[in-house]
UniProtKB/TrEMBL annotation:
Catalytic-site annotation from UniProt: 311
Start and end residues of each Dihydroorotase catalytic domain: 59-240
Function per UniProt: Catalyzes the reversible cyclization of carbamoyl aspartate to dihydroorotate.
GO CC annotation terms, alphabetical: cytoplasm
A molecular function (GO) term: allantoinase activity
Family assignment from sequence similarity: Belongs to the metallo-dependent hydrolases superfamily. DHOase family. Class I DHOase subfamily.
Organism annotation: Fodinibius roseus
The keyword Metal-binding belongs to this UniProt entry's keyword annotation: yes
Recorded metabolic or biological pathway in which this protein acts: Pyrimidine metabolism; UMP biosynthesis via de novo pathway; (S)-dihydroorotate from bicarbonate: step 3/3
Name of the protein in question: Dihydroorotase
Gene giving rise to this polypeptide: pyrC
Alphabetized InterPro entries for the sequence: DHOase, DHOase/Allantoinase_Hydrolase, DHOase_cat, Dihydroorotase_CS, Metal-dep_hydrolase_composite, Metal_Hydrolase
UniProt entry tagged with the keyword Disulfide bond: no
Protein residues bound to Zn(2+) 1: 65, 67, 156, 311
Amino acid sequence: MSYTPDLLLKNVKPVGSGFDGSETVDLRISAGKITEIAAGLEAGGQEESHDAGGSYLSGGWMDMHVHLREPGYEHKETIETGCAAAAFGGFTEVACMPNTNPAIDSRDVVEFIVNSSRDLPVSVHPIGCVSKERKGTSIVEMADMKAGGAVAFSDDGDPVFNSQLMRVALEYSSMLEVPVINHEEDLKLSRPGHMHEGRVSARLGLDGTPGIAEETMIARDILLAEFTGGHIHVAHISTAKAVELVRRAKADGIHITAEVCPHHFDLTDEEIERRDFDTNVKMHPPLRSQEDVDAMAEGLADGTIDAICTDHAPHAVEEKEVEFIYAPNGITGLETAWSVSVRQLLQPGVLDLPALLEKFVENPRRILNLEIPKIKEGSKANLTLFNTDEQWTYEEQRVKTKSTNSPYLGEEMTGRAEAIYNGGHFVVNKI
């Protein structure tokens, strides 16, 4: 990492802001702003020069759903290590979930996270709790927390099960213009499930979580959003029927958005059997059926699903190295999200490059009402340099996150983020 307010990026192919990736240009950054875009530019003065060799350049990517674990669980991850992983994955901004200790349920915790990340190359936006201590009984001071820097509200890790509490949160959502992000799960239907309920769970003799546990909660939240006019955002959607519910709600004009994780449009519940109960394929929502995986791709293609996020959930090695039913849910994902998306969405033609980048660059920020980075002269430089064809291996020595609980560790990847530029910081990813 280097603090490089003045930089000349040579031989880049911009995508977005009127560029389609076919034109190779140079891009000059001065004092953290894009000052010139043209071919044949030469470095001068104190400018650092970086030749991208024809790689693509887009606005900086954003992951709107990560767990940075700090404060309280620094043995799993810290803000600094989580941001290092984000930079390696090509993300210039992340939004962090509030299941920390203490929980992000007051303005002082929001401001602690903002201040702790201020000098890092990745901008961190806290997501505040919906309820105090995430207990689901009393609403937080949403307006005060928004003033401190909270960009959304969620009890993620737990659903907002109390319908009256959710109604109040959505009413505040409509006034404050922030989304309420719900972990969509009816606990009475889902527990004590350890994987998707279906043929594989029956064969393995494991308690399963049925898709209807997700779908019934989404249906409730759609009705509450319609009633209140608030903005409900569906976290880590995972079932075909859930996608259809969101699709219909959007058609009805209800203010609803949705995100999906790469593992939910890539892997199925068959992985648990194939990998002999590897706890690095245990997450919540669980890996679902092939029908559900196919529905995620369809939802991304037709715009029902707005954003791709990772639900990056690091755990210490000793926490995952236990029997499957005792292992915590969650996997890391910041470092592999782009490669999985290239393989599963770009290469098969589910999405073209501009459409895929929209899920990484524009839509997460639209949902959170954040500034969308532009590639144009006079704009603040918030950029990701990347390719779609480089072959590389996700090996442990390349891991930047503090944890290694990833189902992709050791796998061959296609496409990677080469560098990011944000806030005057230029981070080049060497592998």
